[in-house]
Amino acid sequence: MPQGGREVKRTSYQLDILLRVNGTDYPITLDTRTTLLDALRERLQLTGTKKGCGLGQCGACTVLLDGKRVKSCLWLAALAEPHEITTIEGLARGEELHPLQTAFIERDAFQCGYCTPGQIVAGVACIAEGHTNSPHQIREWMSGNICRCGAYDHIVAAIEDAARAMNARTG
Q1: pTM score
Q2: Which of 50, 65, 72, 76 maximizes the CB count within 10 A of its CB?
C-alpha cells in the first residue's frame, strides 16, 4: 500500500505461547500485541472477563495473575505466559461457587451485572490481601473497579460476608 510515495511492508509478529488459565494449559499462536483480555475472550472463548474501557480504569477485565489482581486489558498475553491466570470461570470448584460468588448472590451485589466478574475477582484478591478490616478499607482497595449501577454498598457487604466465611473456614 503506497504511503508518502513509497511502499509500506506489513509484517506479522506471531508468537507461540502457553497460557495456564484456571488450571488448564492452552497452547496458542497470537500476535505479540494481543492483550491478555483479548486472548482470553477471543482465542480461549472465556468471555466471563468483560471488556470495558480498555484503559485499565473500570476494572471490568480484572483477573488474577499468580493470585494478584491485574487489569487484563493492560497486560500483553505474551507476558502472562509463565504465570497462573485465574478468571471468573476458575473461581468455582465444580458446582460449588466461591464464597464471594455466593455472597454476591445473597447480597444482590449486582444490578446490570457487567462489572460483576471484575468486582468478584478483585474482591477475592482484596480478601486474600487482608484488606477487609472495615467497609472504608474495602472501598479503598476496591476503588479500581467501577460499578456504573452504584451497587457499592451491596458489593462491600458481600466482600465482608465472604471474608468472614473464609476466615471461619481457615481459622
Answers
A1: 0.90
A2: 72
